[in-house]
């Protein structure tokens, strides 16, 4: 294996493992309200990311994005989507819905295909259509048999899918875009955190040094895997990235079952098996299409 490919594979794998194991991190902050965690995540992420913008020579691109009304309008929309996605994920983890988050990120690639068909008029190939039908059947079966609509899973999948769709039309890189997004939310976040601190309801500086460090460390959980993923994606084939993306929800699935002992009912297991089959079809189709058009 060539060195650039090896380093790229290592970086991308590390990124997906961090994302997949992140429930352990958020579980350690279970005593802090999810919304307060989100506000800290935004503020500390911006504090961490902005120096990176300067250090990597992207300050001009950052200023250009901030000065462009069109780009800022696009990034404002993505900010709302990513903020909602992060909040729901943290809430779900600390409310013992880890299996639903795993299912949500398993079906995200299929949701992205669906959104591409609806909004970008992309034509679906036969195996993509089959994968979507299987995924839809799985969600419907879970709703009927399990008696509960998997709204957490679908909300995570569609919010992240829409986030990716809108970011496609924003002419900014991943690092610059994320920095602008965290900046936009940091402004109201600082106000909110100051307000609850005045009321004496803030966890920061009140719940112990460990909690303070974990809240500030949310920046690393946010930015580090993104940087590793960006580094790895530039050195790997699209088909390799396609397979690696299933590492994160697989880790989350195992955590839910083996570590946090969430019950896995038969309808849920059948639904997961259908989703895994759909993802298998999707992956094979993506690899074949990539090889034909390389």
What do these coordinates show?
By secondary structure, this protein is an all-alpha fold. The chain has one domain. Helix content is 81%, strand content 0%. The protein has 13 helices and no strands. The protein has helices spanning 3-27, 34-55, 59-67, 69-94, 98-119, 126-146, 151-167, 174-198, 209-216, 218-233, 238-244, 247-259, 266-293. It starts with a helix and ends with a helix.
Key structural traits:
single chain, about 290 residues, mainly alpha, 13 helices
The chain-level structural class is: mainly alpha
What about the largest sheet? none
Give the DSSP E fraction (strand runs of 2 or more residues): under 5%
Rounded radius of gyration (Å) = 20 Å
Annotate the secondary structure layout.
Blueprint (H helix, E strand, L loop, with lengths): L2 H25 L6 H22 L3 H9 L1 H26 L3 H22 L6 H21 L4 H17 L6 H25 L10 H8 L1 H16 L4 H7 L2 H13 L6 H28 L1
Task: Explain briefly what this protein structure is.
This protein has helices at residues 3-27, 34-55, 59-67, 69-94, 98-119, 126-146, 151-167, 174-198, 209-216, 218-233, 238-244, 247-259, 266-293.
């Amino acid at each position: 294996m060539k060195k650039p490919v090896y380093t790229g594979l290592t970086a991308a794998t590390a990124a997906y493992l961090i994302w997949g194991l992140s429930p352990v991190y958020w579980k350690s902050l279970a005593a802090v309200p999810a919304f307060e965690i989100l506000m800290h995540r935004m503020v500390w992420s911006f504090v961490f990311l902005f120096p990176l913008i300067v250090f990597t020579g992207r300050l001009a691109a950052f200023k250009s994005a901030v000065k462009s009304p069109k780009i800022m309008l696009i990034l404002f929309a993505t900010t709302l989507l990513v903020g909602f996605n992060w909040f729901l994920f943290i809430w779900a983890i600390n409310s013992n819905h880890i299996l639903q988050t795993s299912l949500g990120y398993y079906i995200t690639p299929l949701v992205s295909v669906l959104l591409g068909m609806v909004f970008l008029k992309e034509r679906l190939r036969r195996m993509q259509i089959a994968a979507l039908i299987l995924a839809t059947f799985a969600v419907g079966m879970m709703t009927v048999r399990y008696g509960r609509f998997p709204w957490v899973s679908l909300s995570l999948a569609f919010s992240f899918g829409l986030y990716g769709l809108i970011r496609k039309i924003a002419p900014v890189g991943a690092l610059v875009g994320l920095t602008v997004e965290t900046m936009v939310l940091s402004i109201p976040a600082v106000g909110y955190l100051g307000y609850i601190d005045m009321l004496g309801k803030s966890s920061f500086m009140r719940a112990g040094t460990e909690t303070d460090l974990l809240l500030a460390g949310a920046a690393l959980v946010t930015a580090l895997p993104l940087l590793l993923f960006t580094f790895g994606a530039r050195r790997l084939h699209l088909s390799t990235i396609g397979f690696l993306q299933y590492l994160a929800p697989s880790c989350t699935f195992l955590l839910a079952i083996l570590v946090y002992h969430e019950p896995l009912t038969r309808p849920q297991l059948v639904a997961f098996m259908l989703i895994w089959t759909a993802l298998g079809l999707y992956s094979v189709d993506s690899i074949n299409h990539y090889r034909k058009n390389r």
